[in-house]
Amino acid sequence: MFGSVGGVFSGFSRRFTTAAVSLNSDAINLLHHVRLLCSLGHLQGALKLFYSITPPPPLVQSHHTYAALFHACARRSSLPQGQALHRHMLLHNPNPDFDLFLINHIVNMYAKCGSLDYARQLFDEMPERNIVSWTAVVSGYAQHGRPDGCFKIFREMLVWHRPTEFAFASVISACGGDGDCGRQVHALALKTSFDSCVFVGNALIMMYCRSCGGADEAWSVYESMEFPNLVSWNSMIAGFQVCGYGNRALELFSQMHFSGIRFDRATLVSILSCLCEMGDGLEYCFRLQCLIIKSGFISEIEVATAMVKAYSSLGGDVSDCYKIFLELDGRQDVISWTGIIAAYAERDPEEAILLFRQFLRECLAPDRHMFSIVLKACAGLATERHALAVQAHVLKIGFKDDTVLANALIHACARCGSIALSKQAFDTMISRDTVSWNSMLKAYAMHGQGKEAFQLFSQMDAQPDGATFVALLSACSHAGMVEEGTKIFETMSNNHGVVPQLDHYACMADILGRAGRISEAKELIDKMPMEPDSVVWSALLGGCRKHGETKLAKLAAAKLKELDPNNSLGYVLMSNIFSTDGRFNEAGLIRKEMEGKTVRKEPGLSWIEIGNHVHEFASGGQQRPEREAIFSELEKLVRRLKDFGYVP
Predict the structure, then answer these.
(1) How far is it, in rounded angstroms, from Cα 510 to Cα 504?
(2) Span between the terminal Cα atoms of the chain, in Å
(3) In whole angstroms, what is the distance from residue 149 CA to residue 155 CA?
(4) Residue 381 and residue 353 in contact, taking contact as beta carbons nearer than 8 Å
(5) Which residues contact 645 (CB under 8 A, 6 or more apart)?
(6) pLDDT tens string 365-412
(7) What tens digit of pLDDT does each residue of 580-621 get?
(8) Dihedral of the alpha carbons of 476, 478, 481, 486, in degrees to the nearest 10
(9) 553 vs 122, 347, 562, 597, CA distance in Å?
(10) Cα separations (Å) of 91 from 84, 86, 94, 113, 598?
(11) Closest CA relative to residue 124, chosen from 143, 144, 110, 145
(12) Residue 630 is inside which H or E element, if any?
C-alpha cells in the first residue's frame, strides 16, 4: 500500500529525541484548532486546515495533532482519508523518531477501518508494543467479524500483558453464538477479576443470549453486576428479546422505569420488538405509545419505525401506523418508508403501491428489502401489471441478479394468476437457492399443475427443506395426485432427511380427504407423533364436507372449535353439511351458536382491475356506490340465461 512495511519504521530510532524546531504562534494555534475540530467530529474541516499549514510542521511538534486526526478517521471509518494522512506524514517526515503513542493511533485507524492485514503488518513491524497496541488489533478483528484472528492475537497478548476490559469485551463479542468459547473467556475474566467491569459484563450478557438462548446465564451475569449502567439494562432487555422471552423483557423494563432509570431509544426499540412476538401485545403497545409520546421519543426515526412494525404485526389499524409515520415530519428514511409500506402490503396492497410511488417521487433510493416488500404487495393485486412495473425499477437500479427479488417476483406473478411469468422469472435466474425452487413449486401448486411440479422437483439442484415438500404435497392435493402425494410423504424422511411436521400432515389429510378416503385421513391423524392443530382438522373437515361424511365432520368441527374458537370455518362447513342433508333445523342451530359466540365469517372477495384502479367486491356486499346499476345488469344477464334454458 505504501511500499515496504518495514520501511515505515526503518528511520525510527528507539528513543524519542528532544530536539525540536520551534513553531511560530500562528502554527501552534492552527494545530490546536485542528485538534479542536477533531474533537467536535469535523474531520473534513480538520484535514483541510491541517493540510493548509505551510510549511508542514515537523512530526516532533505535530504528533499529537496527527494522533487526533488518525483517531477521528478511525471513529468515522474513513480509510481513504486515513491513508492520505499517513502518506502525508511519511512524505514530510521521511526519518521520524519512533513514537509509540502515534503508531498505536495509526494501527488503530487501519484496524477500525477494516484494513486488518495492513494493521497486522504494521503491528508486527513495531519495535516496541504496549497493551494499547495489542488491544487495538484485537478490537479491529472483533469489530469486522474475524473471530479466528481475534482469538489468535488475544492468546499471543496473554504472554506479554494482562488484558484490559476493552480487550475482554472485544474477544467476548467475537465469540458470537459460540457459547463454549465465550465461557472460556468468561472464566479468564473471573480469574483476573475483570468480570466486575461493567463493560465486560455487558458483552457477556449479549454473548450468552446469542449462544443457544442462554438467557439464564446472561441473567446471572446481570444480577452479579454491582453497578449496572443503561447499556447493561438495554443488553439484558435485548437479550430476553433475542431469546424469545418477551414477558421477562417487559418485566425488566417496568422495573427499570419505576426505578427512575431513564431509558433511551435502544430500550424502546427492543421492547417494541418483543411486543411483535406476543399475542396480547397490542394492549401493551397502546400503553407504550403513551409513554413514548410523553418522553418525546415519538420523533425518533428508529422508535417510530419499530412502533409501526409492532402495530402492524399485532393487527392494529394501519391508519394508526400511518399517523405514527407522519410524526417524523419529512425526516423519513428508506427504513421508515419500508416499514409503513410493509404495514399496508398485506391489508391494503393498492395503498402500499401508492406509497411506493410517493417514495420514488421524493427521490429516495429504494433498497432490495423495500423492493421485496413492494413485490409482496403486488402479489395481493388482481393482475401482474404492477409486479412487472416494479421489476422494471429493479432492473433500472441494478438489482437484476438479486436472488431474493427474483424469488419475490416468482411469487407475485403466481399470485396474480400468471404462471407463465413466474416460469420466465425462474428460468432467467443466474443463481437459484432453495427458496427459488420452493417459490416455483408453490406457483405450480397454486395453479393445480402437479405434474409440472414433480418434473421441476426432479431437476432441483438445491437441498430440499420442509417447505419444498409442503409445496409438492399441495400440488398433489390440487391436482388429485393421491398416489404420488402418498409416496412423497412416506419417503421424504428416508430419502431427503426431512421429518414430516404439522404442515405436511395437514397436506396429506387434505389429499386423502379430497379423494374421498376419509377413514384413511382419520387414521393418519390418529397416528401423528404430535398433537394435530386446527389446520389438520380443517383439512379433514373439508374432505367430510365434500363427501358428506357427517359423523367424522362433527368430530373434526368440535376439535376445530376447541383449538381455534374464533375461526368460522368449523361452523360454516357443518352448517353446509347439515343443509346438504336437508337437516335445516340443525344448520340453523349452528348459525345461532355462531352468532351467540360472536364468531364472524369473513366475506368472500373478488377483484377486477379497470384502468389503473382495482375494484373489490364482497359476497352479498351492499357498500359499492354502483350497486344498483350492477344489480340491474345482473338481472338482465340472468333473464337472458333463462331464455337460453338455464335453470338456477
Answers:
(1) 10
(2) 84
(3) 10
(4) yes
(5) none
(6) 888 888 889 888 888 776 777 888 888 888 877 787 888 999 998 998
(7) 777 777 778 777 777 766 666 666 667 666 666 666 676 666
(8) 40
(9) 76, 32, 14, 20
(10) 10, 9, 6, 22, 82
(11) 110
(12) helix 627-643
- Cβ-based neighbour number of residue 496 at 10 Å: 15
pLDDT in tens, 454-488: 999 999 988 999 999 999 999 999 888 899 999 99
What angle (nearest 5°) sits at the alpha carbon of residue 150, between those of residues 149 and 154? 115
DSSP collapsed to 3 states, 342-379: HHHHHHCHHHHHHHHHHHHHCCCCCCHHHHHHHHHHHC
Q: Rounded to an integer, what distance in angstroms lies between the CA atom of residue 175 and that of residue 151?
A: 9
Retrieve residue 135's grid coordinates. 488491544
- Cell 432490495 locates to 368
Asked if 160 contacts 41 with a C-beta cutoff of 8 angstroms, the reply is no
Asked if residue 324 has pLDDT above 60, the reply is yes
Q: Say how far apart CA 226 and CA 231 lie, in whole Å.
A: 14
159: cell is: 504472554
Q: Reply yes or no: is the peptide bond before residue 55 cis, omega within 30 of 0.
A: yes
d(CA 264, CA 464): 44
Residue 346 CA: distances (Å) to CA of 341, 342, 406, 511, 585: 9, 7, 19, 28, 39
Contact 241, 205 (CB under 8 A): no
Which CA distances in Å does 239 have to 46, 250, 288, 293, 565?
A: 40, 12, 20, 25, 34
Torsion-angle region of 619 (φ positive above 0: left; ψ -120 to 50: alpha; else: beta): beta
CA distance 381 to 612: 11
pTM of this prediction? 0.70
Residue 178 pLDDT: 61
- In the block, cell 513514537 appears at 99
Whole-angstrom distance, CA of residue 387 vs CA of residue 378: 5
What's the burial of 628, exposed, middle or buried (CB within 10 Å: 0-12/13-18/19+)?
exposed
